Amino acid sequence: MNDIEVRRVTKDYGYKRGIFDIEFVVKQGEIFGFIGTNGSGKSTTIRHMMGFSKPDHGTISIRNLDATTQATDTKKWIGYVPGEIAFPELESGEAFIESQADFWRLKNFELTNRLIEIFQIDLRANPKKMSKGMKQKTAIIAGFMNDSDILILDEPTTGLDPLMRVKFLQVLEEEKAKGKTIFISSHLFEELEHLCDRVALIRDGHIVSIANINEIKHPQEREFKIEFMNADNYQRFLEEPFHFDRIRPDQNQVFISVDRLDIHQFIVKLSTYDVKFFIEIKYNLERFFKDTFNYQERVGIEL
Amino acid sequence: MSDICIQNFTKDYGFERGAFNVSFSIEKGEVYGFLGPNGAGKTTTIRHLMGFSKPDKGSLQIFGMNAFANHSTILKSVGYLPGELALPAGLTGVEFIEMMKKMRHVNDDTRINELIQLFELDPTAETKSMSFGNKRKLAIVVAFMHDPQVLILDEPTSGLDPVMQEKFIEFIKSEKTRGKTVLLSSHIFSEVEALCDRVSIIKHGHIIDEFPMSKLKHNENKTYRLTFEKEQDLNSAFSKLPTDIYHPEILDGQRLRVHTNDKNINQFLQEIKTIPFSDFEYERLTLEDYFMNYYYDDIKFGGIHK
Asked: Do residue A263 and residue B279 have CB atoms under 8 angstroms apart?
């Protein structure tokens, strides 16, 4: 089942600003990532998913209800953490959390209290005077407290330090294990690669590509870098029928691509040489998007 | 001579907050990374290095001068990019740049225009109405408008989009080749890995480790992961590999992690060539993993930990 369906959505603000023909689905229980530059349409897409804005064309549905016309109903399922947080005039973070609890008519504060403990947040401070990190943590607690089935998170880790980021990612993994559907935008490739099932790249209002993280983490082709003890071994290895991506004769180094199915054979071969060290050059999400990008530029795909 | 030299710097705010006996120095042309969570003492150290505050003990020097006593002299050759920005209200970006030009006695616009172009800043808007990313770009232009010798950067790319992050990294690399000295405090490990020559880690106000980046990049200790179709093959591989050399760990019913040193690599290849694994992967030691080892107890809360 798809919890979120975005079908050919366009919102044209003129001057090439906006989103154009955006299409993707988020399955129930999936973590779906969204990355792109500022102004590329990330927040515009999210605001349409939240029903704050009406698309020019196309439809967005949340569990088969229309995100725009039935927003009052769809929002009941959604926990939302906005990208830019504007706190109301309240004397403390505690008062803000209470106002959010009233909004949700929350009876069970177990999750709220647990998150307050995990993020070690002091809610006595005035939200307007909080540091970026504290504001972010307060917004996360407000977005998560209702234990909603769908989480829509607009750059939730901006302003968090490394320890808080790791804790937050652990919380998200717990939520996923509970069956939650999560949509998250971020500026950090590594974070999305670690967390998501799929990631979409958006550029100038168009979705460039949607990456399947499992395929990126476990690609069919592996790249290895090998340095040999001496020039003799290096020269002899060059005779092997491998696919050489690059060679560095002055350092006795080779870069080769090996199919996953041939890896055992590769190790057997390598054991007949005098090796200094060898490592795998990992493929990653950032490289995937750069490759896609360059390919599109090269063949001249107009977005 | 080091451009930046901090010796036994202590500032005690009570309740174990502050910085305690912090020492490090940064050579001319070096990029030095400063890692730690919020509240560990990074910004305290940086603010004292900028001469905003007087230390309880120890000394902080830039170009051999006392940072507090010679604050205004030093500022002429230092560019400071703070983590959280407070821009004056009621000014446009252009007016703010003009104001800072006067303060810094900058008469030449060449560098300013270069920076505006490089970071694609539109400075015509009023500062308060600028987006977060634009505010940061404005701060970058203002921090480096006088082409300083020393750059002090406190989480410079926090909140910047991927393209701008990369631009910033390229900018710092080119400043390094021009012989500039950089102190970089950052929460983004990939940026520190890409830029820094040396790194220190601060915890509860104390520096707990300082190391050259090459320690991670050219580490002779390697970790590999073997995947098996059959659990019995995994178990026999586990018992075959000597524990004292390869420290094998069973990750689950399919995967085995082994550790080795490059001086044993040929022996290792001999050991594993007869093992029927179906996949073989290398686990790179990342700066993030290295850093998190020092904070393992702080990130555990009984949740899922990978």
From this structure: yes
Gap from A227 CA to chain B (nearest CA, Å):
11
Distance CA B20, CA B56 (A): 10
Tell me how far CA of residue B149 lies from CA of A79, B42, B118, B288, in angstroms: 47, 21, 19, 29
Angle, CA of A22, A24 and A25, to the nearest 5°: 145
Confidence of residue A300 (pLDDT cuts 50, 70, 90): low
The ipTM is 0.84
Distances (CA, A) of B284 to A253, B221, B225: 18, 10, 11
Q: Note which residues in 154-213 of chain B have CB less than 8 A from chain A.
A: 158-165, 187-190
Which residue type occupies B240? K
Where do we find the tokens 């710097």? B9
Chain A interface, best mutation among B84, B122, B161, by max A CB count within 10 A: B161
Residue B302 has pLDDT above 60, yes or no: no
CA angle B37, B39, B45 (to 5 degrees): 100
- Tell me what the pLDDT averaged over chain B comes to: 92
Q: Rounded to the nearest 5°, which phi and psi values hold at B155?
A: 50, 60
Residue corresponding to tokens 């174990």: B16
> How confident is residue B306, by pLDDT bands cut at 50, 70 and 90?
very low
Q: Are A146 and A79 in contact (CB under 8 A)?
A: yes
Which of A 173-212 lie inside 8 A of B, CB atoms? 173-174, 177, 187-190, 194
Of B162, B220, B270, the CB nearest to A35: B162
Question: What is the amino acid identity at position A118?
Answer: I
Cβ distance of A162 and B37 shorter than 8 Å: yes
Query: The pTM is what?
Result: 0.88
Q: What is the pLDDT of residues B104-162, one digit of tens each?
A: 889 889 999 999 999 999 999 998 888 878 888 999 999 999 999 999 999 998 878 88
